[in-house]
Design brief:
- GO terms for molecular function: electron transfer activity; heme binding; metal ion binding.
- InterPro entries: Cyt_c-like_dom (IPR009056), Multihaem_cyt_sf (IPR036280).
- The chain is mainly α and about 210 residues long.
- The protein has one domain.
- The protein has 7 helices and 2 strands.
- A two-stranded antiparallel ribbon has the order 1-2.
- It is globular, with a radius of gyration of 20 Å.
- The structure holds heme C (2 copies).
Length: about 210
């Protein structure tokens, strides 16, 4: 056997060893592209992929408007509708006024795969603040508000990326959207691809379609 033929047998175990510590470590964003190194056209392409995520029911059904109603797009139904059982999040956005979301959506990082069971996450289940409404909004509207610190929780571009990482570290809502379990359709792409797209969009100066 020529020595070169041994290479795959030597390299494969090495890769496994290298991958182990990464998997166990805290979640980290890949290094951000240099500002100015991403063209506006590339930024708009990244936005198109971001838009497909943020307007997907797994994300938008919690980012709802001033009626304080969570939305449901249930497996086996073909229409999105207000959450069943007359659930109302109230101005607290966590149901404090009536029935707390956590009564059913317990805070847990355990696997979440039972069909039609209330999904859960590692943080307290609740609607996003009303100024972060995505449901029923157009892509350009969501784009404009997502880069507006008055309406995105006071975040600059890097702050948006940090939010995604921070949420994922706690097993929060964003990773849930990419792996919702229970036969639900996941948000398009992967968590890592979404982080990368937000970084590209930010480095391009957060361009929005007209
Ligand atoms: C009485 C129990 C109960 C309460 C209280 C409750 N939910 Fe739910 N929720 C469910 C169940 C059950 C499902 C899963 C339905 C299914 O998949 O068939 C669900 C699913 C959801 C979904 C996923 C919908 C989708 O299409 O991905 C969201 C979002 C949601 N609830 C938000 C909330 C919010 C916000 C609150 C508090 C204001 C809340 N829920 C309170 C039982 C509850
Ligand atoms: C269970 C409800 C819920 C789901 C599902 C959810 N979010 Fe959120 N989201 C929130 C809450 C609550 C906040 C406010 C957190 C904060 O500002 O610290 C938020 C804030 C955000 C923000 C901050 C900036 C802004 O303008 O909204 C981003 C970005 C975000 N979510 C992305 C996502 C993405 C991407 C998905 C789907 C993959 C998703 N969220 C699904 C509840 C949810």
């Amino acid at each position: 056997m020529k020595p070169a033929n041994l290479a795959p047998f030597l390299v494969a175990p090495l890769l496994v060893l290298l991958a182990l510590p990464l998997a166990a470590a805290d979640i980290a964003a890949p290094p951000a592209p240099e500002p100015g190194s991403v063209s506006e056209a590339e930024g708009l392409d990244a936005w198109a992929r971001i838009e497909a995520v943020v307007s997907h029911p797994r994300c938008a059904n919690c980012h709802t408007g001033p009626d304080n109603l969570p939305m449901w797009s249930i497996v086996g139904e073909d229409k999105t509708r207000p959450h069943g059982m007359n659930i109302h999040a109230g101005e607290s956005r966590i149901g404090a006024e009536t029935l707390a979301c956590q009564t059913c959506h317990v805070t847990s990082t355990a696997p979440n795969d039972v069909a039609h069971a209330p999904p859960h996450a590692g943080i307290e289940w609740q609607l996003a603040p009303v100024e972060m409404q995505w449901f029923d909004k157009t892509g350009p509207e969501i784009c404009a508000q997502l880069k507006d610190p008055e309406r995105n929780g006071g975040r600059d571009g890097d702050g948006l990326v940090e939010h995604l990482i921070h949420d994922a570290e706690k097993d929060g809502f964003v990773p849930w959207g990419f792996a919702p379990g229970g036969g639900r359709e996941k948000a398009p792409g992967t968590f890592d691809e979404h982080v990368r797209d937000v970084q590209l969009w930010v480095a391009a100066g957060q361009p929005c379609p007209q």
